[in-house]
Batch of 3 targets.
Target 1
Amino acid sequence: MSVLLIAEHNNKELKPFTLNVINAATQIDQDTHVLLIGHNADSVAKSISEVSGVKKVIHVDSPIYENYVAENYVPVILKNAENYSHIVSAANTFGKNLMPRVAANLDTSQVSDIIKVLSADTFLRPIYAGNAFATVKTNDPKKCITVRPTSFDPAPSTGGSAEIVKGDPGEEYSLTKFVKKEEIKSDRPELGTARIVISGGRGLQSGENFKLITAVADKLNAAIGASRAAVDAGYITNDHQVGQTGKVVVPDLYIAVGISGAIQHLAGMKESKVIVAINKDGEAPIFSVADYGLEADLFEALPQFLEELNKLNTIQK
Amino acid sequence: MKILVAVKRVIDYNVQIRVKEDNSGIVTDNVKMSTNPPDDNAIEEAVKIKEAGKATEIVAITIGDDKAQETVRKALAVGADRGIHVKADGIIEPLAVSKILKAVVEKENPDLVFMGKQAIDDDCNQTGQMLAALLNWPQATFASKIDVKDKSLEVTREVDEGLETIEVNIPAIVTCDLRLNEPRYASLPNIMKAKKKPLDQMSATDLGVDTKPRIEQIKVEEPPKRKAGIKVANVAELVNKLKNEAKVI
Ligand SMILES: Cc1cc2nc3c(=O)[nH]c(=O)nc-3n(C[C@H](O)[C@H](O)[C@H](O)COP(=O)(O)OP(=O)(O)OC[C@H]3O[C@@H](n4cnc5c(N)ncnc54)[C@H](O)[C@@H]3O)c2cc1C
Ligand SMILES: Nc1ncnc2c1ncn2[C@@H]1O[C@H](COP(=O)(O)O)[C@@H](O)[C@H]1O
């Protein structure tokens, strides 16, 4: 038995969540191998080989893999699948797009979005937007699994010394073409891994008003999140959305501003260590999960918040 | 061009679900059900494409118990031309759903299959990708914009980093995000008319698909509850608590 993990990267860097998935994989089986499919990604192969817990890196290089297209990845994964009992990747838009295409090819019923490894075939996973936890056991001989990265600590990025072997590319899939990716670059911490997240909702009323959120985020070195309503209204781009159909975040501190707390939003943040809610409606459901609730108008509260933060001598980064 | 749209009947998204006392599942008796939200977007998009003169027929399909037919009727009321109900009871896993859909695709020969990106009950996010795999068709998942070209679609996908655009040849599978469009409501006259539209029925067995679950659901539990917090009187108190009590800033 051993685990084949599909790495997420951009040919230059390993995506940080891969480390969390490596940790989950080693809980399934110590013999964890990572499959890196890319182009000119030698530095990524090297950094994976140094991750603690990784036993082997299979590096497949071809210009076909310049950009990630699931249809191109799948033949490579299938070629390598034979030697493994489990195939795993992250339950983010990368792995969600990829893994079911692998699973169906192997006639396997996939287990999505696990939050705990109970044994090599039994897992805990949230259903109904996290309003219930299901314990599930898969009986398929080959198990395809996606892992909720925020439910596992990252594996240490050093301490390993796995061998790197070259793998063969698969056939190119000609019916799907990558056109472009509009990536929003920022100097802020990444939403998924930030220690502090401050999110704005419909209560912000406009994209312009999000600068009140940005100012506090700058001060706290926080990532910025948003409710679906705020994204739908065009206040902020989709990569900021937190929730059932957005990102799941588990920061030390989550500050929800002008967000009512619909179950679909809570699904993405209610595991946060400390939750703060700022809302002018004292009955808003967000207060039911908040450790500290402030019933106030955000347009007064946010500037005051910044002012109070400015008074502090030190702020943890 | 013909579009097949898969719609699932789920507990309404506004319902606060309850776990059964014996931990065998979720209470569904007397609970409001509706169409899985992004499946409404899938139907809406198909109807818009037909209205633009680029599609000739829309077939809505559901897999489930007798009541699942309501979901197809609703799709017919907003513009689908024909319905299919594949009867199957109990939990039907995405793998089985995709095998059923594959069998139907082989009979119906649609050019496109539209579905939701994720069912809000099982939160699996698998079925479209699996169907694409079984048919070896291109997959455009998490679509928030679709441009129909001559023999292809240009699709904008919502991904973690922002937006991605891909081009897929037709035939293709598209899974829809809620931001794809604004689903319309069914008017009363259209609801009446929908009752007369054809709705074929068949069973999973007729299609030769074994729907027995592969995954055992051992138990379903309530997630741990957060303990109740406090309300603070003002911003100064909030900052003080965060600094000195929670020690997070
Ligand atoms: C299938 C499905 C999936 C979904 N997925 C997600 C998801 O992933 N993420 C998500 O967030 N939502 C999701 N939603 C939407 C969700 O149901 C809610 O509609 C959404 O979260 C509401 O966003 P909101 O809280 O910003 O807006 P609202 O519910 O409108 O709340 C705005 C809040 O702001 C407060 N407010 C207004 N003005 C002020 C002020 N001046 N000062 C202080 N407070 C103020 C109000 O009191 C109110 O509580 C999903 C819905 C469906 C059907
Ligand atoms: N029983 C079903 N009947 C019809 N469509 C379904 C069914 N199950 C899943 N689907 C389709 O597949 C999508 C994704 O579902 P899932 O993979 O379960 O998250 C849904 O949005 C539907 O479009």
Target 2
Amino acid sequence: MPTTIALAGNPNSGKTTLFNALTGSAQYVGNWPGVTIEKKEGRLKGKPDVLIQDLPGVYSLSPYSPEEVITRDYLARENPDAIINVVDGTNLERNLYLTTQLMELGIPVVVALNMMDLVKKSGDRIDMKRLSDALGCEVMPLSALKGDGGEQLVREAVRVAQAKKGMEPPAVFAGSVEHTLAHIEETIASAVAPERLRYSAIKLFERDEKVMADIALSPEAKSRVEELTKACEQELDDDSESIIVNQRYAYIAGLMDRAVVKSRKGRKMSLSDRIDSVVTHRVLALPIFVAIMALVYYIAVTTVGALVTDFTNDVFFGEWIIPPLREAMEGASVAPWLVGLVVDGIVGGVGAVLGFVPQMLVLFLMLSILEDVGYMARVAFIMDRMFRRFGLSGKSFIPMLIGSGCSVPGIMASRTIESERDRRITIITTSFIPCSAKLPIIALLAGAMFNQSNWVAVSTYFIGVAAVIISGIILKKSRRFAGDPAPFVMELPSYHLPTAGGVLRATWERGWSFIKRAGTVILVSSIVLWFLQAYGVEAGVLTAVEDNNNSLLAAIGRFVAPIFAPLGFGNWKAAVATFTGLVAKENVVNTFGVLYGFAEVAEDGLEIWSLIAADYTALTAYSFMVFNLLCIPCFAAIGAIRREMNSSSWTGFALMYQTVFAYAVSLITYQLGAVFTGSPFGLGTAVALALLAGLLYLLFRPQPSYGQLKPATGR
Amino acid sequence: MKTLRDTKPGDTVTVHKLHGEGAIKRRIMDMGITPGTEIYLRKLAPLGDPLELTVRGYELSLRKQDAAMIEIR
């Protein structure tokens, strides 16, 4: 029978580092059912019969946020054999608040006092024996980063798990509260398992709706509980939830007095505070932020990234793989179609996308470092005011920031957003910001139509940001997303040096996610696209085509093109290019190249600028660019959306919203632009004006009241 | 009624009572802001909001509109 040990603790307590240390590579990462919250479980290294279940970082076990509900539901229903409570020793009071709650569940608990190395440095002294005696469970030191204490910790956890002896929760409550709880326990004893009696009594006292729904109480029992609760509230002149919280913290304060000797250094500024006096300084914060981001992008994209990408594309694929492969196959008299399929379709298609992987890994690495160090929390702190204007929070900024490199890790970064509602909005709008794969499209059109003006690129970032803001406001006013704004009460954790393990793991997780997409979806679509491009119907027969104007892809393009006519680019080449852009935005330029007769083009399509200029006007080209920038992102990003939304219907909604939005904006741009440049007022113009009016209405209407809504953190 | 919103960076105040209700009030309390707790207002964010507070030995970020729920002595 496997032993299950749950890991619970505050965010930033080092729980994840411990989990990684305990499970190594033997871990599985998924999502908790129905929500967009990561679920991690794994086997103990060297002892596969011990299952380690990581739980979301929580500050408490209230019913108000999905992370807390998941944690308490797991513990109360799945009944793990033991809980390792990771406690940040430099932040003892707030961490112990959760500890008292975990101990009331009737499951054996072992407290892992983490960051002991930092505690020692600060001069504080924690008497672990006193703490342990008072709490009623083992308290063991841990320095997860350094790897000290992990083994003993797990051994102790397994020991208490197998001993199967319940633990007495500490005597947190006093006086009339304890009295009331005892009476409530009596009242509900027949409806609740004995181990859960205390937990349930406290929750019922707090009028926790979720627990109330779970327990089958007779109407008499229910009213008795309410009676008891009210009496206590009246006596203490406070509401029951507040009473419980206050008593917990009062108990902890007493505990701290007995078991902790604070260093005599007083309230001097810690190293983190000193760093923050510069980093979140009133005036310096924003310039520093811009400088840091510029540096990150400089390293990731312009120097190291470009170097490695060019090498991958030009040398690795361009010289080492593609030509020898082609020669080998042709030499072995492999049928030409198979050569084409493998070399051009598969290797060429997948290779084009994989060529960007090194650049992305460098970007992910830099961003993981910033995150691990603790800087990203500061970014959310700085940006919150701006985002609050349109109903989100500073935490939504980070996915968009990352999305300017690649939407895939950007969308994945939305995990830090607590409010499910805000998270979904952020996931939907992240890909509006131009990612690095869209830059070649911008460069192509800027070069062909706008004399390589830098304003083209700048305008697309403005459009992206505007799209995010507008969408945020519109969605927040709709029924699905309306509700009280989610609380923005966020800890600013101490800075610490990045851990190589943590950073590399985070980098790899993001990179691997992308590569896997390349291996599957992109592979299949590359094959399909190659086939559609290489084959067509000539003289009624399906055959390989030389002139790709006759290909199946062209036929499909021509069939679909009229959809894009109101947007100004209703020609089949544009339609085809847009479609190949779904596989990877980098494909758009390549596709144009191929369709205009160039098997290979430079990244910005230099060779075809004049050809493009012949087929488009400035306006139609801009409209095309806008559509491609805003419409649904590449398959890799769609995959990320699916994974983070954890729901096909939400993914469908996201894609539908993006497509409709892109179409509308593009249409408005083209039609109104046409009128401004002299075209006559027509049906298209009328439609554009109607769409614009609709958009403005959705944007500026007063917030509708939808009556009783779930709290912002609900599902 | 003096609230946390009225304090200036550098002030140290003591919490008297928490107003409001529901998720936001619970979250503020869960994070350690309870009657009798000492709070140090370290700074305002560069754009003026949110506040950075030192509570029970750690740094907490709180919006001004939510700080208005915390009555101080």
Target 3
Amino acid sequence: MTPAISARGLTKRFPIQRGSSAHGAGTFLALDNLDFDIAPGQAIGIVGSNGAGKSTLLKILARILPPTSGRAVLHGRVGSLLEAGAGFHPELSGKDNIFLAGSLLGMKHGEIRRRLDEIVEFSGVGDFLDSPVKHYSSGMYMRLAFAVAAHIEPEILLVDEVLAVGDAQFQKKCLQRMETLSQSGQTVVFVSHSMQAVGRLCQRALWIDRGKLRLEGPVAEVVASYLKEGQANTGERVWPDGPHAPGDEHVRLRSVRVADSCGQTAASIDIGKPFSIDFAYEVAIGGMVLFPALRIFNEWGTEVLWTTDTASPEHGKPRDPGRYTSTVHFPGNLLSEGIMAVTVSITSLAPTRTHLSEADAVHFQATETIDGTTSRGQYTEAVNSMLRPLLNWKVRVEPVC
Amino acid sequence: MTSTANQIRRNAIARRSLPVTIIEPTGRGISLFAALAEYGEYTALLRYLTLRDLRLRFQSPLLGVVWVTLMPLLPAAIFATIFARILQPSTGGVPYSLYALAGFVPWTFFSTSVSTASMTFVWNANLLNKVYFPRAVLPASAMLASSAELLAGLVLVCGYSIWRGYHPLLSWLCLPLLALYVAAIAFIVSLGLATANALNRNVKFAIPFLMQIWIYATPVVYPISIVAPHTRLILALNPLTGALDAFRAALLGTPMDPTLFLISLASTAVLTLAAVSVFRRYEALLAERV
């Protein structure tokens, strides 16, 4: 059978522009000699850490970027969904935007008209169809954007992380729609950070690691080895001195570490026990008030929490040059199970300036021991909540007369 | 296209008629014919992008029409009151105000549409980075939307000539064709400039200067007859020279210089070749360079 997508020696090199002059410009190898075939009707997930080249690959397959060398051959109409709402204009009505976004995705006029009712129905914005989308809530906007995209029916659909936005219910709807599409024989290429989503939607997966194809195979196998390696590396991340560490001339990040209840560096923590995350950074130019912040994202890309150093004595005070370590202590019974990604950022105010914001600085696995002491008690079925606080329950019994 | 690519395409067509996309480094792109055929697939996009531009430009229709009418009217009025008094150019009996307006209608369209359409790649950088579509649709739709201004200008200048006692001529039927010709020149210039703009941000600063020089290299405010005959031929290399000369001739029934128009056609052809080859060379790189 002819593959729907076949890539041979696909390579992409980006020029790196340092400063304003072209002097000293080098190149960055984003994709290094990829070979793969994707059979028609298959849903394939592309996994890999940030900057591994997943999005570059998708953009090349979508013909947004040309490869530097190599070739890919695609059999069938290609539709790409790299950003929900691409082409939407805030001043135009919902209906006008359906036509604009639909034609941008390669739909013909008659096709859009035939599917208009379906799109409106799916989006649920019926009453507001004639008002400008700038008056829409962000949820309505996203629903309409995805509704248009979900109704293109190319043989090959390329999807990037669109599910990272929108609420959990909307994400589920998107996933269901993609499942339907792949069951109807469409080839779906799906890039996502969510291992859950990849696992549910895809039969096979490609693991891209620093531009190279690391592993290709059944989804469970690839995801398992990706996570396994991820865990071997995580728990702690240290950046070498010099300009390559995240940051700017004022502040640079040095390390991020997850520690278990005993203070040991750990890639896996027990959700019932306290744990901590510390990160070290160097302040080169003093005198600024810094706001170090930490965010935790779950597998769905949903932000579970955001915290800054409000409770520390250093809060709101200008910092002298030096090396600082901020430690955040988390109580037990806070997070749910799953793979968590930590984003570290350091900002200064007046003027607001983000010195660094390192997404996926470190990953850790939150596991649960079902021993009756966590919020789930003796309940053993899946608990899907984002948080698992152990709350104060009071039970009052009144005798029945 | 390489021969293996052709082979793959043939095999696919033989098996079932699925379209085949071959992704290769730039410089080995698809044939001009295949590229043009692709634009046929995207007529809906051209239509809705044009509608978007029109809706945004004419959000309040009355103000939009007033604005569009004033654009050529104002400079024509200024030149008619000042330039005509001081220099008293000979326009062969045609009132200077009418002569100037007949020049400013196509010129104002040309300069404003080129200024807008040549920015389309830069303004739509996000779109270029998120969706694939044949890229020339962007300047083309901007040009189509600007054509509303040209249409308004045509009505204006015809109305003014009737008011000044010029009766409609049979040659007025050529006016839409000549307007289309000016729009075609504007599109070609925009395609080249939009590509250059995406590759180098300094280009956008040069465009206003280019337009200021260009207006004086075109017989907009002065009649071509005041120029010495051999200089006239140099000016004719500017495709707008012949176009405007023909436009005035068709509108006012004044004699037209066919040499100027033929040179204009030839230089438009050269310009098209240059702009299209620059665009096709950098088309695939627009998203990452813009």
